[in-house]
Each structure stands twice: as C-alpha cells, then as structure tokens.
Amino acid sequence: MSAKMKTDDRMEKIVSLCKRRGYVFPSSEIYGGLISCWDYGPLGAELKRNLKNFWWDTMTARRNDIEGLDAAILMHPQVWHTSGHVEEFNDPMVDCKKCKARFRADKVDESRCPMKPSKTPHECDGELTEVRNFNLMFKTYMGPVEDSSAIIYMRPETAQGIYVNFLNVKNSSRQKIPFGIAQIGKAFRNEITPGNFIFRTREFEQMEMQFFIHPSEDVQWFKYWREQRWEFYKNLGINMEKLRWHEHGPDELAHYAKAAYDIEYEYPFGWQELEGVHNRTDFDLTRHMEATKKDMRYFDERFEEKFVPYIIETSAGCDRTLLTLLVDAYDEIEIKGEQRVFLRLSPRISPIKAAILPLVKKQGMPEFAQKVYQELGRKFKLFYDESGAVGRRYARMDEAGTPFCITVDGQSLEDETMTVRDRDTMEQTRMKVAELQDFLDKKVHG
Ligand code: ATP
Questions:
Q1: Average of per-residue pLDDT across 191-215
Q2: Judgement on whether residues 322 and 418 belong to the same structural domain of the protein
Q3: Does 344 contact ligand 1 (Cβ within 6 A)?
Q4: pLDDT per residue over 147-192, tens digit each?
Q5: Quick check: is 23 in a domain?
Q6: Does the pLDDT value for residue 390 go beyond 50?
Q7: CA of 317 to the centre of ligand 1 (A)
Q8: Residues 335-371: pLDDT tens digits?
Q9: Total structural domains in the chain?
Q10: What is the CATH number of the domain that holds 316?
Q11: Is 244 part of a structural domain of the chain?
Q12: Same structural domain for residues 316 and 356?
C-alpha cells in the first residue's frame, strides 16, 4: 500500500471498485438489495474460481494423502444434534431498547448504532437488554408439511459432511491413516451482525480439510498443518506482514477443540480471523459413532490397535479470503497529478491474465491483435480492448487487477513483436508472439 493512501475509507473504495469493475454486486440490487448478501460479477466469479482451484490443487489434487468430497448442504437433522450445534452453536446477543437493533454481545465495541453509525451501541442513549443466546442455524422444512418432524437445517459448516462420510471415503479410496478429506462448499449462519462487505455474511463458502490421525501424533500434525496453511497465503501473494497467528485461550475454545489457532489478517477494520486451524480430537467421530452405532474406529498396523482417529481441521472462508486478496491488492498512487487505483493481484489468481490492446484502430493493428487474442485466449483468460487512448485502457486494466497489457503497434506488423507492460513495475518489454505464451505460463503457473 502506498504511504499516501488514507486507510479509513479503504473499504468504501473497495466496495465501489468491486461494483464498478464487476467483482461484487449487492444481491437483488434492483429490488433494493438484501442485507449481507452479495453476488459475484464476471471478474469476481473468475477470481473466486481461481482461488478455489488454487486451494483445491494445494490441498487435494497435488497430494496423494487427501481425498476430495462434495457433500449435500441439507443433512439428516440428527447430525446437528450429535455435533452439538443445536444445543451449542449460539452467539450471545443484546438488543437496543431504543432502536430495537440487535448486536453480538461480544462485539458491541466493534458494532455501529444503526441510528447513528458514527457511534457504537452503548455510546448512543439506548439501553441494552440482558445477554441472551441466539442459535445461528437457519431452519427450514423438508417436504410439504411444515411441522416439527419436517425441520431441517442449512449446514452451518461443511465439516460435518466430511465426518459422516469418513467410512465411505476411507473404504472407497483405501486410504490409510494419516489421511485427509477436503471439501469446498456453501455454509449458512444466521449471523446477528453481518457486515464489513463480504467479511461476515449469512451465506458463505468454506474451504475445509479434515485430517485423520492417530491420537498420539496430534501435536506434530497440528504443527505441520499450521505451517502448510501459512505457506498457502504466502503463495497466494498476500503481504505476510499483514498476517499473524492468534492462539485461542481456554475461554475461546469451541466445544469440540483441544487447541486452536487462527490466522488473522489486518483488515481496514482491524485484525480479524481469516482461517482457523483446530485440533478437534476424536470428539466428532466419537459422537457420530455413539449416535449411529457405526464403528468409526480404525485399525492401525503401525500401532497394532484400534482407535477413534483424532482430527486436525483447517477451515478457511472462501469469501473472506477473496476480501483479503482485494484489500491486500488495493493500492492508490498519484501519477502526474491524477489519483490512480491499482489492484495488485498476483497473476496466479487475477481474473484476467492479460489485455490485448491495438495501439490504434487502423493500419491492420486490430486484425493482428485479434489473431493474438484468439491464439493466446485458448490458454489464458484475456481481455480485448481497442477503445480510447491507450493510457486510459492501461488505467482500466490496472484497476481491474490485470497484471499485463500487451500492445500491438506499428512495429508489430513488421517484426511480430509486441510490448508487454507490467502493471506493478510499469516496465515495457518487447516480445515475439511465440515468446508470449511461455512468458504468461511462467507468470500464471510459476
Ligand atoms: P468468527 O469468529 O469470525 O465468527 P468462526 O470462528 O465462527 O468465525 P469458523 O467456524 O472457524 O469461524 O469458520 C471457519 C472460517 O469460515 C472462518 O475462519 C471464516 O473465514 C469463515 N467464516 C465463518 N463465518 C463466516 C461468515 N459469517 N461469513 C464469511 N465467512 C465466514
């Protein structure tokens, strides 16, 4: 981030850039929007897909000790009793007696009064009610009869889909412990105070991996997965000075966890959790085993014993990581008296890898540029733009997060070279068409 940039209004600027460039739109906007719900536009959908692919490659596709899964969102309602979510997945809540607004009791200091957004709830004159517990699960009915026997929950985490499939995956894949199951999917939480754009929403996507191990090896695997997840963010191109670990104290630990660390990022609204790495012990499998009478124990030849595996979980929010990428990449600098915005996303995940720009709309340049666009476009997501001054076109691409602009000029027609402009250094290099593919390949898949 440039030193000149003001940090206080960064979120507003990012929200507006996301709308302008087609990253994220308010959901159902023509009806006035729906609070805390967002739609990903063309660039946002592409960025999200790149992020998920990168996670999937890192956590599953390139490892032979992790299997993938895609479980249903709706699960047997008993699952959520067994997991403890029906009884314990609560947030403490308080209401303002004056304006009736509802706040998370443990986040009152970070919340804003809806009547006076410059103030926190207890700073306005409204008195707050006693703290009450509020269950975060969305409930609905399955089938035509709306009675208590038809109640079903929208899953509040993807993890339970993995636990109930532990035996299926183990038996079908013939994996031996230690091994993991990874899943990307939607989760739903009726958050009391959603907000900060896509940071906390009621519908969101998680990227979770559950690693099944012998109980005696939990400390070493817990450490290993913390290191792996730290490395993941480094490879995503995140500024590592903006990341830190937060270890949960005994009063913060979830009901299922023996130890937990969060990876936190310094957002414009403060340090907040980006991902959790948890030692969930044998809590989940033992509970499901007791409830279903299915034997979840594993016989390990190394230890010559049967045991319920311990689980190390890595749980990241996809939307929250996407916000992190946007916040981290957002930059503003002044160039020749003009305030310019740059989205410095790494080529690995940027939605558009390069723009193809004929310098002028004549002398055969558009035809040449179109040929390059068609050829390279078979391998990379590109953008073709021939309208307006080339400086303006560069500026649009800088703001959209496109790392390279490839310009076709008079010389291109003579010797088949083009200039490649790097968004971050603004340096221009001449390259042959044949060299471009290799160049982009290295930058994108590096
Ligand atoms: P928080 O303390 O922020 O409510 P949590 O500790 O309840 O989060 P987990 O249950 O550990 O979160 O979920 C794992 C990850 O899922 C979080 O690190 C976060 O990235 C993401 N996540 C959780 N709740 C939300 C939400 N409401 N909106 C977007 N992402 C979320």
A1: 96
A2: no
A3: no
A4: 888 999 999 999 999 999 999 999 999 999 999 999 999 999 999 8
A5: yes
A6: yes
A7: 6
A8: 989 999 999 999 999 999 999 999 999 999 999 999 9
A9: 2
A10: 3.30.930.10
A11: yes
A12: no
CATH assignment at residue 408 = 3.40.50.800
Rounded mean pLDDT of 15-26?
Answer: 97
Same domain, 182 and 280: yes
Q: Is 282 in the pocket of ligand 1 (CB under 6 A)?
A: no
Please give the number of the atom of ligand 1 that sits closest to the Cα of 278.
Answer: 11
Q: Does 303 share its domain with 358?
A: no
For residue 225, tell me if it sits in a domain.
Answer: yes
Nearest CA to ligand 1 atom 18: 275
What spacing in Å lies between the alpha carbon of 272 and ligand 1's midpoint? 10
pLDDT at position 5: 43
- pLDDT of 109 higher than 60: yes
319 lines ligand 1 (CB under 6 A): yes
C-beta of 321 in contact with ligand 1 (< 6 A): no
438 burial level (CB within 10 Å; 0-12, 13-18, 19+): exposed
Residues 356, 258, single domain; the answer is: no
Range of the domain at 271: 7-74+145-326
Nearest CA to ligand 1 atom 14: 315
